[in-house]
Every structure is written in structure tokens, then in C-alpha cells.
Amino acid sequence: MRYLTIYRPEAGEEGGMPSPEHMAAMGRLIEEWSAKGKLIDTQPLTPRDRCARLRLSNGQYTVSEETVRAGGFALLEFASKDEAIEGCKEFLKVAGDGTVEIRQILEFAPQPA
After folding, report:
1. 19 vs 65: CA distance, rounded Å
2. What CATH architecture is 2-104?
3. Residue 39, beta-bridge partner list
4. Which terminus of the chain, N or C, has less C-beta within 10 A?
């Protein structure tokens, strides 16, 4: 099953440059998960002051600055939700204090034509 995970660092950590040690540890985790087929893609996200939120309500669009802090995302492959949770615990040990939102991606079987 595929999962989209979004990492939200604790307040004050967004946008800062990680230490070389932190980058090396994260690189090792990325390499390990890639080799095992667990990591499909991962990328950092820009700080929230450079993001926008678009809303449509009653035919009217509203654009506002994003208010939810997010440091990055990963698209992961795990056998179950429990395995995804355990994997994200491992990620947080490397990433540091924060929250990971774990969302299973719904996969629909192709419909016959």
C-alpha cells in the first residue's frame, strides 16, 4: 500500500539548514528505504510564508497564505498502516521533534471498458 506522509517540524525548526550530521543521517535513511523499495519519492517543501492556499466557496475564490507548517513529504510503500507508523517513527528519530501525517493513497482497480 502506498502512503503520502507530510512532516511538520516543531515550531521554530522550519526553514533552518540542517547540520551536516543530520543530513548524513537522513541520507542513510533515504538510501536504506530506497534500496528496500519503501521510498518512492521525497522532497522538502518551501517555508509557509512562500505558500498559498486557494479556496472555492459559493463560486468565489479566496487566496491566502498557508498557515500549516510543513517541512517535506514522502511517498512510501508499506504493507500495512501499522508498518507505515513504525517506519515514520524511525523517520522521526532522524528528523527530530515534529509530527508526521500518514495518509493511505486509495488505489482503485481499473474498470473494464
Report:
1. 28
2. 2-Layer Sandwich (3.30)
3. 76
4. C
Please indicate, yes or no, whether the overall pTM of this predicted structure exceeds 0.85: no
Q: pLDDT by residue (tens digit) across 5-33? A: 998 888 655 556 677 888 899 999 999 99
Tell me which DSSP letter residue 51 carries. -
Q: Residue 7, class by beta-carbon neighbours within 10 Å (0-12 exposed, 13-18 middle, 19+ buried)?
A: buried
Dist CA 46 CA 72 (whole Å):
8
Question: Over the stretch 36-90, which tens digit does the pLDDT of each residue have?
Answer: 999 999 988 877 777 888 889 999 998 887 666 778 899 999 999 999 999 999 9
Contact 76, 5 (CB under 8 A): yes
CA distance 84 to 70: 19
8 close to 47: Cβ distance less than 8 angstroms? no
Nearest to 7 by CA among 102, 83, 99, 104: 99
- H helices of the chain, in order, are 20-35, 81-95
